[in-house]
Amino acid sequence: MVRKAAGKYSKTKEEQLSEATKAALLAGTVLAMERLQKNNKRKDGMSRKFVKFWNRGSVAQFLTAFYKDHKLTKEEIEELRKIIDELEQ
Hints:
By secondary structure, the chain is mostly helical. Helices cover 75% and strands 4% of the residues. It folds into 2 domains: 1-55; 58-89, no CATH class.
């Protein structure tokens, strides 16, 4: 900081630029997060429509058809169990 007369301080050009850069980065981050949220909501809606159309809304029927020829790993099974547990709460 640069000391001015009467004991007041003003910011240097580097400090001002640094603050402007931080503000721009924050604004960009917020915008990116908003876009990701909108994109996730759109994907969720599309997934629901897909399950509803092809499996009459039955997620269990959808998963059975989807994984019929694919053996799930222990990690995938555990992940599905966690999802189900969260839905029950």
